[in-house]
Design a protein that fits this description.
heterodimer; A: about 90 residues; alpha+beta; three-stranded antiparallel beta sheet; 2 helices; elongated; B: about 325 residues; mainly alpha; 2 strands; binds fe (ii) ion
Chain lengths: ~90, ~325
């Protein structure tokens, strides 16, 4: 039982024109089998037009503890949102 | 319910962290795998999700039993698709459990050597085709009762697995009801088979929700943590209320003479299942416990050379590619 197949994270493009989205994970011996298994596990009802598989241990992730330093700086930059600016009605849609 | 009598684990954590954690849950935030969580939350969820996953996998056996003997090619294709979905449900749930730091093989080993349980319902046999209809309708129907609220559970991966599962379940229940309806509306012999299936599976289905709340000691903490949303009795009552009119529509007799509409409560009264039978089945003495575990062990052992062979092949291919670079 030590020979466990590696874990793969599965990303599916649901429709043409959309981004791939993470849908879950599965075990497979290699990328080719991971795609085949993903087809069976995650697209049994037309949920996808394209599949990406990434071995889970190749994914680097931010840690929950970094939330503050990573995202707080953007909170003070309200001018990045269009609603920050008042545009007179006479100017029309902008 | 596919996870019955999940013992909630005591927690020995820093009270301040515990309080902050509880606040997150009360605010309706989802807990993600890398977030801090109490040890008891982690352990209880591994047990609960693992047991749920095992139930999906073992649950394929009673239905798989009839795939080759389905009455028509269409019924066979439908049942095959349904059973394949259950394999998928097992996989979604194993993955959710694995995010908490337990490996797939550990979970499998614990099922195979009996340390982890699966739902008591799958230790009952499917004797004929009417049972297949009754299982889809009643067993998946009972599972849905439990799974719909669990979509709102506090643990992100579990909640997402539940959402995916719920999308697929209503097909399961409908195909079952459709199959048994054909029999209930068929020849007198067929109708008798449908009645017999409902009679036999009724109480085991009620047992799926677990013992009565007054005897279920582990609910309180789990409900606080939102890994259990409703009490066992609430869900059981809901299931009875929903199912009785469905039985009547089929023109079948109610499987329990104690079923009566209670005007005052606004619910059907019903007879409690025989809990001594339930505990006996949980202990391993149901009609099919031995068969089910033997089948899972055999599948695991017989598949060992495939798992090893594919992994060896993948490693060789990777080494060759590496050498060529
Ligand atoms: Fe399922
Ligand atoms: Fe199902």
């Amino acid at each position: 039982m030590k020979n466990e197949w590696p874990l793969w994270e599965i990303f599916i493009r649901g429709q043409h024109g959309m981004s791939h989205r993470h849908v879950g994970s599965l075990h497979a011996p290699d990328a080719e089998m991971a795609i085949k298994n993903a087809r069976d596990v995650y697209t049994r009802r037309n949920e996808g037009v394209s599949i990406w598989v990434v071995e889970a241990n190749h994914i680097a992730a931010s840690s929950p503890g970094d939330k503050g330093p990573l995202y707080e700086p953007s909170e003070s930059k309200v001018y990045r949102h269009p609603t920050f600016f008042d545009i007179p009605e006479e100017v029309g849609a902008m | 319910m596919y996870a019955q009598m999940v013992k909630s684990e005591a927690t020995n954590d820093d009270p301040e962290k515990l309080a902050a954690f509880q606040e997150r849950i009360d605010r309706g935030e989802k807990i993600e795998p890398k977030d801090w969580m109490p040890e008891g939350y982690r352990k209880t969820l591994i047990r609960q999700i693992g047991q749920h996953a095992h139930s999906e996998i073992v649950g394929q056996l009673p239905e798989g039993n009839w795939i080759t003997r389905a009455p028509t090619l269409e019924r066979k294709a439908i049942l095959l698709a349904k059973v394949q979905d259950e394999a998928g449900h097992g996989l979604y749930l194993y993955c959710a459990a694995e995010t908490m730091g337990v490996s797939r093989d550990e979970l499998t080993e614990m099922l195979l050597d009996g340390r982890m349980k699966y739902s008591s319902i799958f230790n009952y046999p499917t004797l004929n085709w009417a049972d297949i209809g009754a299982v889809g309708w009643l067993v998946d129907g009972a599972a849905i009762m439990n799974q719909v609220p669990l979509q709102r559970t506090s643990f992100g991966p579990y909640s997402r697995a539940m959402i995916r599962i719920c999308k697929e379940e209503s097909f399961h229940q409908r195909q079952g009801y459709d199959a048994i309806r054909k029999m209930a509306e068929g020849t007198p012999e067929q109708k008798k088979m449908a009645q017999d299936a409902v009679n036999r599976l009724w109480f085991p289905s009620l047992m799926m929700f677990g013992p009565s709340d007054k005897d279920s000691t582990h609910s309180e903490q789990s409900m606080k943590w939102k890994i259990k949303i409703n009490t066992n009795d609430e869900l059981r009552q809901k299931f009875v209320d929903q199912t009785v009119p469905q039985i009547e529509f089929l023109g079948l007799d109610l499987p329990d003479p104690g079923i009566k509409w209670n005007e005052e409560r606004g619910h059907y009264d019903y007879t409690d299942p025989d809990w001594s039978e339930f505990f006996d089945v949980i202990k391993g003495n149901g009609p099919c416990n031995v068969d089910r575990l033997a089948a899972r062990n055999k599948a695991w052992d017989d598949g060992a050379w495939v798992r090893d062979g594919l992994l060896a092949h993948a490693q060789k291919k990777a080494a060759r590619k590496h050498a060529a670079e």
